[in-house]
Protein: Coronin
Organism: Seriola lalandi dorsalis
Amino acid sequence: MSWRPTYRSSKFRNVYGKVANREHCYDGVPITKNVHDNHFCAVNSKFVAVVTESAGGGSFMVIPVSQAGRLDSHYPKVCGHQGNVLDIKWNPFFENIVASCSEDTSVRVWEIPDGGLRRNMTEAVLELYGHSRRVGLIEWHPTSSGILFSAGYDYKILIWNLEIGEPVKMIDCHTDVILSMSFNTDGSLLATSCKDKKLRVIEPRSGRVLQQASCKNHRVNRVVFLGNMKRLLTTGVSRWNTRQIALWDQEDLAMPIVEEDIDGLSGLLFPFYDADTHMLYLAGKGDGNIRYFEITTEKPYLQYLMEFRSPAPQKGLGVMPKHGLDVSACEVYRFYKLVTLKGLIEPVSMIVPRRSDTYQEDIYPMTAGTEPALSATEWLSGIDRDPVLMSLKDGYHRPNQLVFKAPVKEKKSVVVNGIDLLENVPPRTENELLRMFFRQQDELRRLKEELTTKDVRIRQLELELNNLKNVSPNNV
């Protein structure tokens, strides 16, 4: 496909990318070197969270958005996981709540204090165990305040109700590792891509597969719902090993509507869709560029707009929510680009050039806000609602009065032969297994010594007793 732009009546045809000045970047960040295919970065209007390199266990940093510049080498971290952190996501409704998943098979929910961390955080608000293997993906429900989805290497998706801190549903229709998850606007449908080369559209509450495509010519890596257009977009690889994107009808996955080859590079393509502007951004792992398109409901469906180019390759990308953008500068999207070689997080703003300084209503329609439309109980009962919308005209000043409350669980015990089985949980990592082994060896050694001492004492007492018995008849 030729990437020469066709000039048509589009208000976004001149969108350009602007890299932040060095003083507005975040420098000295020990970004993880993990090769897991994920973004390793999550952003909201308060904080930037990034997975970091650490020795033993897994950790991530949480940096206030306003605290740009070079970080201290001893900057505090969130470091409660016992294995590498594979994914992090901010709660869309509680801006101090972040979820993380790890190779230690757990999903944890953390509450970050206003102003950021003062010391290392090791205690999570919730620790969720349900997967038998490492957990590679997590995703918050787009309209419900207390629903979290997690996908593990056990080929299962668990739905967690955070109001009770328990899994309420397991989706078990995949036969290999789940590569990505995406929700439609109201969260009533879930699209997944899987290593078994199948694309699925699932009804999450029942776990029923509504549509399924076997992608033989287009090996799917990532999938994203295109808002309310009833379309899916996937990125993947063609049979000739070229990077490719495909557009699908969510109600009929028999054949893609259109397929377009991108290039012959090998890095994974991450799709980002902005439902307000109908713009699609494509960023390749290890690439320095970001391509962007406009998506329409009529042919040619995908309209190439422009390309942002940079010499620095990206490890992953975080995206600022709409209410955190600078509307006075006509900013319609903002990436936070991880540059591993420099230990740098680099904000990249996508800007629509406008001469007027007034609010541009045509590029800022009503957008999803930070108020949940449903509680977890309502969504689980079968209710679906569209997101609660907000205007960006007066900036984002309305504080969210909601407070995240973690469930208080009663301490249960299952005692067998004097041992509490719930208190003595099995080890989850090799290091933990070794530590437990050496502790048990020390305990066995101590018990053997104690047993030997008692045996000696018993023999002494038996001899004294025999002496007393022998002395007694003589006295008589």
About this structure: The first helix runs from residue 376 to 380. The first strand starts at residue 16 and ends at 19. The CA atoms of residues 452 and 458 lie 10 Å apart. The two ends are 118 Å apart (CA to CA).
